[in-house]
Give the backbone structure.
Amino acid sequence: MTDRQALLDFPGAEALRAAGRVEPPSARTLARAAAAVDAAIRDEAATGGGSATQERAAVVVPFRRRRLVTGRRAVATALAAAAVAAGAAVYADPVAGPSAGRAPGQARAATAATFLEDTAKVAAALPASSGRYWRMHLRTAAPGGGSRTFDEYVSRSMHYSVVARGHTFTKPQPGTWKLGPRSFGWKGLDALPADPAALLKIMNSSREYAGQSAFIQAGTLLGGAPSSPGLRAALYGALARLDGVKLVGPARDSAGRKGTELVFSGVASTDYLIIDPRTSALLETRSVTTKGRPDPVDRTTYLSVGPADRIG
């Protein structure tokens, strides 16, 4: 067995190879992976898989020695976690069993659906938040209009206030969020179904722009609305079921933050979402018009979002 074969002799290695070349993980990522290795080794030792000292020695010996794979289950888990944190298109499937053709916890190559399903789990586990306002710190770039950075506040009565360059402007009429043929206020969001299939049916109601409309509307609610953890999870689950959504892979938004990009090619534009898989936060939406205008990019970057008790 060669050194390379010994190094890649663990469950999920084929998926890691298929993911292609990615940026090397940061020092923080490596430290987290090392901690995961230690934890997994202790777990194996506690269940009769050998002493922690023996297992750790097996991990740190040179790769050419076959004993490296004695603790390969722990190493595989840690490597998969490190790959995800570094932006690789490989994800751990915690629920896969024999019927799915994979052992529990085995790494799997990412598709748009698997990425979105995993992100939905992250979103569902987040705590609920509350406040008098929903605040968004935004950077926008409109076709031919340059870039703007400002804060937008939405009250529970759906009045919008914009704070820019030290001035506050409030819309005279309350607004709403549109989903399919209907419009919803803050309270109305809580009444939306938490079932992804039912939610997709509402968003996918347009005949001409069906999938594209659902993709854009989901992005609006994930980025700019006080959606509950359950609704956020359902929105990601709905996108996972939407035909036409494709996984682009690791990307950076206009602020330089790392995320994973999805794309949907529609009737008159190609639309993108950049999502942070660690937090389920939507970092950026971008629409590139495929007809007409010479400057076709329309972009919104969600620099930060969350509840607030006052404006300013």
